């Protein structure tokens, strides 16, 4: 939803910060405080909307507006999405940069939502197909890591699961935000699911949404220590950790090895037009010798990979895929793909590609490519345009079950 017409910034101020190289100072920088404030009103009448929820997706940061629709929230330096929602109104999202927050705040106008969904009762029993599709959704949304398998969806019957509208495509929506309990990482996650599509034929999964993390409170010292360790493990090797270390210029120290990767059409596999011509000839010929030749030279190659990968064995200097501007902005830019090896943790035993032996000697390997010419990176490991960077293999295997909030405090190496 484009809400630019509903946003009325009134002033701006610039927050400057210095980058220090000591770990403790870097962590303090992450939590430098800025004030996100404003007022939530109804679009048509401009009457204040009391008690609307205002939060920063992918963080633990959120607040409820007061009875006059006013809100004020301290947030760390960075770039964030803001989501504002209230029952009976359409939710609104917009992007902010803490370096240019309006001094007088935002005025956010919500449109009323009179749509009434004619849906089955939440408590009505579902058929076996629904439960089968639910398990598929969990596998590709929560993930199959130890953390993903431990998550419980408290309101799973709020899910709208559809495998009939588009044949061969599983689509999932939800009538309310999903309430996810992640006991391993000590978070309850309120996840506003906006889209989920799984195409088993193509092997593709696409989902998006707005998660809000609430950390467990009143834990024993022992439990808190165990959860802190599990959070650190989940963070290490993640796309968030990788981009955070790239931003700081310490990805090699943090255990990442980057190489260039190219994909080219497989010259040994006939093209679709060649397959079609071979099929036509096979059907029309009476010569067994010709048929045998077609089977040997064409049909036998149908299972070959469509593409071949060419991996440059030389380690890439991370700065070669970064653009650092004088104003402090950092962009990632590269052609083809990059091959990312994380050396500080072995593959998890649950990973589909994990070997049966010598698991502790097997590094985590991922691949990434840009859908845009370049993307802007931010200090906290986030980046502009959530679909501008796509990952494959290990980083793609870790899904919502291993997701960490952007305001998580990482333990990072001292920059050399």
Automatic annotation (TrEMBL):
From which domain of life does this come?
A: Bacteria
Q: Which SUPFAM superfamilies match?
A: Carboxypeptidase regulatory domain-like (SSF49464)
Protein name from the UniProt record: Carboxypeptidase-like regulatory domain-containing protein
């Amino acid at each position: 939803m484009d809400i630019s017409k509903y946003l009325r910034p009134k002033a701006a101020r610039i927050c400057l910060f210095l980058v220090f190289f000591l770990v403790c100072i870097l962590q303090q920088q992450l939590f430098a405080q800025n004030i996100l404030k404003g007022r939530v009103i109804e679009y048509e009448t401009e009457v204040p909307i009391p008690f609307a929820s205002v939060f920063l997706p992918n963080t633990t940061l959120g607040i409820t507006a007061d009875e006059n629709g006013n809100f004020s929230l301290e947030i760390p330096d960075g770039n964030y999405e803001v989501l504002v929602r209230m029952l009976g109104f359409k939710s609104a999202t917009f992007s902010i940069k803490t370096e240019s927050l309006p001094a007088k705040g935002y005025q956010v106008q919500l449109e009323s939502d009179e749509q009434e969904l004619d849906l089955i009762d939440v408590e009505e029993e579902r058929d076996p197909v629904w439960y089968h599709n639910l398990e598929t959704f969990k596998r590709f949304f929560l993930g199959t890591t130890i953390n993903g398998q431990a998550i419980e969806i408290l309101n799973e019957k709020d899910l709208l699961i559809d495998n009939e509208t588009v044949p061969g495509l599983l689509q999932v929506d939800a009538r309310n935000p999903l309430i996810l309990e992640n006991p391993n990482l000590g978070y309850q996650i309120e996840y506003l699911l906006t889209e989920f599509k799984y195409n088993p034929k193509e092997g593709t999964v696409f989902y998006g949404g707005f998660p809000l993390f609430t950390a467990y409170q009143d834990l024993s010292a022992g439990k808190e220590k165990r959860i802190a360790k599990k959070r650190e493990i989940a963070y290490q090797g993640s796309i968030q950790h990788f981009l955070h270390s790239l931003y700081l210029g310490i990805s090699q120290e943090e255990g990442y090895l980057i190489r260039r990767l190219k994909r080219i059409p497989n010259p040994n596999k006939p093209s679709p037009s060649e397959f079609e011509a071979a099929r036509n000839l096979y059907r029309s010929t009476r010569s067994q010798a010709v048929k045998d030749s077609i089977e040997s030279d064409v049909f036998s190659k149908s299972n070959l990979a469509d593409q071949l990968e060419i991996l440059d064995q030389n380690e890439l200097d991370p700065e070669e895929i970064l653009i650092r501007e004088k104003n402090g902005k950092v962009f990632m830019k590269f052609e083809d793909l990059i091959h990312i090896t994380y050396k500080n943790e072995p593959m998890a035993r649950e990973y589909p590609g994990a070997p049966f032996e010598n698991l502790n000697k097997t590094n985590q390997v991922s691949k990434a490519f840009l859908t845009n010419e370049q993307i802007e990176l931010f200090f906290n490991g986030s980046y502009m345009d959530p679909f501008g960077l796509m990952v494959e293999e290990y980083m793609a295997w870790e899904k919502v079950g291993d997701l960490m909030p952007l305001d998580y405090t990482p333990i990072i190496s001292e920059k050399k």
